[in-house]
């Protein structure tokens, strides 16, 4: 089964190539850096300014990218991987990769239907971080009324 989920951010296959979109509210400039320019294989990088949109969004649609293209966003000159990336083939600090989810023949219908959910949320093991637990213990210690036996 072919399946795809459109996202309002990140890299999405679109008419005319790939649409890249990032929320960078306080950034002065945002560029898209495409690794190995148009598949040249020479290690070059194409740097293209992303157009500002209302609400702090930046976007760009380009035919110079397609499935498998490695990319980064450069916010005020510093490169970062896409926080909404569908693939980080070189680890979390490496370049992101464009993925076309509709290109795969997904075989998860039985699992999807029998489970009846579209997402599973992982919850933290600790109810509060250690610093918050320590603060709660300190507050409880100071709540003993004067003259009462502790």
Brief summary:
The N and C termini lie far apart (66 Å). It is globular and about 45 Å long.
Please provide a written account of the structure:
Helix content is 13%, strand content 28%. With 150 residues, the chain is α+β, with helices and mostly antiparallel strands. Strands 3, 4, 7, 8 and 9 form a five-stranded antiparallel β-sheet that branches. It has a four-stranded antiparallel β-sheet with strand order 1-2-6-5, with no helix packed on it. The termini are far apart.
What's the topology here?
Elements (H helix, E strand, L loop, with lengths): L9 E5 L2 E7 L6 E6 L9 E5 L1 E2 L4 E6 L7 E6 L2 E3 L15 E2 L11 H7 L14 H12 L9
Antiparallel strand pairs: 1-2, 2-6, 3-4, 3-7, 5-6, 7-8, 7-9
């Amino acid at each position: 089964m072919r399946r795809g989920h459109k996202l309002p951010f990140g890299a999405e296959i679109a008419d005319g190539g790939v649409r890249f979109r990032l929320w960078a509210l306080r950034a002065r400039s945002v560029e898209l850096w495409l690794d190995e320019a148009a598949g040249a294989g020479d290690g070059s990088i194409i740097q293209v300014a992303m157009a500002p949109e209302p609400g702090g969004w930046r976007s760009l649609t380009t035919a110079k990218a397609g499935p498998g293209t490695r990319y980064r966003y450069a916010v005020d000159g510093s490169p970062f991987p896409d926080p909404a990336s569908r693939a980080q083939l070189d680890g979390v600090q490496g370049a992101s990769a464009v993925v076309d989810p509709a290109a795969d023949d997904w075989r998860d219908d039985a699992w999807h239907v029998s489970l009846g959910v579209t997402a599973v949320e992982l919850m933290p093991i600790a109810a509060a971080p250690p610093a918050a637990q320590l603060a709660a213990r300190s507050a409880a210690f100071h709540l003993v009324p004067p003259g009462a036996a502790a």
